[in-house]
Write a structure and sequence with these properties.
The protein has 449 residues and is α+β, with helices and mostly antiparallel strands. The protein folds into 4 domains: 8-36 and 171-195, no CATH class; 39-169, 2-Layer Sandwich (Beta-Lactamase); 203-241, no CATH class; 300-444, Heat Shock Protein 90. It is 49% helix and 17% strand. The chain has helices spanning 8-36, 39-56, 74-78, 155-169, 172-203, 220-266, 272-297, 310-327, 347-364, 414-424, and strands spanning 58-62, 65-68, 83-88, 94-98, 117-121, 128-135, 142-149, 307-308, 330-336, 343-344, 367-373, 378-382, 428-433, 439-444. Helix 1 packs antiparallel against helix 5 (172-203) and helix 5 packs parallel to helix 6. The protein is rod-shaped.
């Protein structure tokens, strides 16, 4: 099986993805360089985040009273030694607090500081951060004081992650995904003419006149390539036609003297020498037929709507070769197994392939030879001979390939012709040693072909 290769669209999309990843990593590096090296900026960021979280959980208790909701107090309960806050009213009393002992007394004073401020006190270790912010509804005049000593809850890390999300995940990732998706769609549509051109080129068969019309892609370079491919195919078809013509002329030129030679042999008395000459003539005649068939095998033209019955072909071949089998002390048997559909193909070419398989079985094995039709679009020929040599099935279909013990009755073209006929039908030919003995060759066809 041919390994699946990457398509150009997939390759370009993957490269765009790598470029997008590089841009993403570059942004991560820039954010890290900016915030990761500026500790105070990160501290300001996590203080603002905590202030906003506390203000969002502010609850009115009625009659001018306010408190911080329970969900925002978890940090202060878990790390009572590091974080604290106090909520001050308009006249200065504490409306709510958590770990207020951490807060310096000066931070409680009204009108001593601006409404929003942050201070870093180096007294003690680690550094103490104190911040104040005016919160609450208009007219409430509430002031929230927040303090942090150290960072056991990794608020700095969360602040940095929040910056990554805010500067990359939210604005950049959707843009990258949109870019990749639009580019993949654009590449697929842009390369669609190339795919159509490749499909047309794959369907071409040298020597076959009825080909699909050349697609018009609208792209100058691809159209030039298609025209060049068509011209090359025309030249190859001309060369194959010339080869077929020369083979036919040679075969025709040889048939007349062979027929005359056969007629003269028939006038001679039967003896060992005459029998040997007849066998040599039969071998020469079969070689001539195979040379002509080999030239024709490369130019099989399957006409649209040409549906044939494999069963009828098998019956005709068995009937035609029965006398040959009798002369060789062989016996032909025809079997039909299951439902056999009609297939699209060339009847003459398939008949030629089956004749070659049956003749090979008669010559190389003799005895009982079974020609089976079905199940499905399948023809098989099985003999009761010694079977195939190990690891030889892949080389059997090479031109001029003969087994080490094969009789000198041909040129080694029969199986090569069979393989080429099957390729022309998008079918396959397989060979194996049957479990019950003997060699078995199978021709399989595509029903939708």
């Amino acid at each position: 099986m041919k390994p699946r290769s990457n398509t150009m669209a997939r390759l370009l999309t993957r490269r765009l993805a790598w470029i997008a990843l590089a841009v993403l990593l570059a942004n991560l590096a820039l954010i890290w360089a900016y915030y990761g090296t500026d500790r105070e900026a990160l501290q300001d960021e996590f203080v603002d985040r905590q202030m906003a979280r506390l203000e969002a959980s502010l609850i009115s208790t009625g009659e001018g009273g306010y408190r911080i909701g329970d969900r925002a107090r978890t940090l202060f309960e878990t790390h009572s030694e590091a974080y604290g806050f106090v909520l001050l009213g308009a006249d200065g009393p504490a409306l709510d607090e958590a770990n207020s002992g951490l807060i310096p007394a000066a931070a409680f004073a009204q009108n001593r500081f601006a409404d929003d401020w942050i201070a870093r006190l180096s007294e003690g270790t680690p550094e103490l951060i104190v911040a104040a912010h005016t919160i609450g509804p208009p007219g409430a005049e509430l002031r929230l004081v927040f303090v942090a000593r150290g960072d056991p809850a990794n608020l700095l890390t969360y602040a940095l992650i929040a910056e990554f999300i805010g500067h990359i995940a939210v604005p950049l990732l959707p843009a990258i995904l949109l870019l990749l998706g639009s580019n993949a769609l654009m590449l697929h549509r842009s390369l669609n003419p190339v795919s159509r051109a490749a499909a047309w080129a794959r369907a071409l068969r040298p020597g076959v006149g009825d080909t699909e019309p050349m697609p018009k892609t609208g792209l100058g370079e691809i159209d030039d390539l298609l025209h060049a491919t068509g011209r090359a195919l025309d030249r190859l078809t001309e060369a194959l036609s010339a080869e077929k013509r020369r083979a036919a002329e040679a075969a025709h030129a040889l048939r007349t003297p062979l027929a005359a030679f056969t007629a003269r042999l028939d006038q001679l008395p039967d003896n060992e020498a005459t029998a040997s000459l007849r066998a040599d003539l039969a071998q020469l005649s079969r070689t001539v037929r195979q040379i002509l068939a080999s030239a024709n095998a490369d130019m099989v033209a399957i006409k649209p709507g040409a549906h044939i019955d494999l069963g009828s072909i098998a019956e005709a071949v068995v009937a035609a070769l029965a006398p040959v089998a009798i002369r060789q002390d062989a016996e032909l048997e025809l079997r039909r197994e299951g439902v056999v559909p009609t297939i699209r193909g060339d009847e003459e070419a398939i008949t030629l392939a089956l004749v070659n398989l049956v003749e090979n079985a008669i010559i190389h094995a003799g005895g009982l030879i079974t020609v089976a039709v079905g199940p499905g679009a399948l023809l098989s020929v099985r003999d009761r001979g010694p079977g195939l040599l190990e690891d030889s099935s892949d080389r059997l279909f090479e031109p001029f390939r003969q087994g080490p013990n094969a009789p000198a009755t041909g040129a080694g073209l029969g199986l090569s012709i069979v393989a080429r006929v099957q390729r022309a039908h998008d079918g396959a030919v397989t060979a194996r040693t049957h479990p019950d003995g003997g060699a078995e060759f199978c021709l399989s066809f595509d029903v939708d072909g």
